[in-house]
Amino acid sequence: MKISRKLALAGSTVFLVAASGHFLQRGLLASGLLGGAAPADAQLVKSTGVPAPAGEPGETDAAAQVTTLASVAPSVDLTNLAPDLPAAPIVPVFPVHNTAREPAEPVPALPETTLTETDCAPSLVLAAATGAMIAVDFFAPCDADARIVLRHAGLAVSGLTDASGHYYSQLPALAQNAEVEVRLPDGESRVADVAVPDFAGLSRVAVQWQGEDAFQLQAYEFGAGFGLPGHVSAVRPGRPETGGPGAGYLSILGDSRGDWPMLAEVYTFPRGHGLGDGAVTLDIEAAVTETTCGREILGETLHAGPSGVVATELTMAMPDCNAVGEYLVLQDPIPAMRVAAK
């Protein structure tokens, strides 16, 4: 930008000098100082340097014509003809600006705000999902990373909200008209209910425990052996949407993080697929560990069917710590689940 302005200024200066010389010529000729009228051989040329055509009268446009002074009166001294003029003031080419900036005004601090009781109010939404599962959507905006407890028909497991206070999970329904309670650490809770029509065709068995006491459900469908198809466990839990005869599955519930976790496993088996009489054999296992050896571990079993939920306390006396790494097996904790033909 500075270069272009300088070039424009130089061009203007050249134009002014040429125009001043031209008007000076015209004044000298008119006053007779250059010998009176212009001689006949004085040639007028255009500013482009091309002579005017022969016989054509001279151009009258003073800005477009220049007469060579040397050919008219080369001996005339022109130094004293110009009057004394006061020196023109020097005007800077570019305006001068003060680049100093005023200090910015400080931004006022926002007033501190506190969430009201209404802002912190938790919410609970339930929905029926595939396989007679209950989708649990809980939100507590003022309880981020908080331990919560979910209760449903005797089943109780713990969970943990995320950094925004949100928690989402699925629970196996233990009743067709299912009610779920979610409780926060301060005792505040929310309760909601949902209809689960698919539950009518299912049987469910659960085992639950707290802390370091741990149990595992092992289901053997229609005489299946350990590790073979039809053996359902935490290693091969199956999925609710599998469907079909003998398609049982295991739900592993609860969050082991936080203080005193509450965990559970729930085995689901569909009833009435026209297979004739069949049986599902259940075992409950407990691993002998450094934290469980040499003492009793406590739990509870739940059996949910069309007639309701039956709860039974579960106690297992663990062997001494020389048996760490082994398993204690409780066979047939609940009478065999019969699958009757329809």
How would you characterize the overall build of this protein?
The chain has 342 residues and is mainly beta. Helix content is 10%, strand content 35%. It contains 2 helices and 19 strands. It has a 5-stranded antiparallel sheet, with no helix packed on it. Strands 11, 12, 15, 18 and 19 form a 5-stranded antiparallel sheet that branches. A hairpin with a 2-residue loop joins strand 5 and strand 6. It is globular and about 70 Å long.
Distance between the termini: 93 Å
Overall pLDDT metric? 73
How many DSSP E strands? Answer: 19
Secondary-structure-based class equals: mainly beta
Q: What strand order characterises the main sheet?
A: 13-14-10-16-17
Cα radius of gyration in angstroms: 51 Å
User: How does the major sheet shape up?
Assistant: 5 strands, antiparallel
Low-confidence stretches: 1-74, 91-101, 273-277, 338-342
Oligomerization state of this entry?
single chain
The run of helices and strands is HEEHEEEEEEEEEEEEEEEEE
Number of helices: 2
Helix content class:
under 10%
- Characterize the overall form: globular
Q: What proportion of the residues form beta strands (DSSP E)?
A: 35-45%
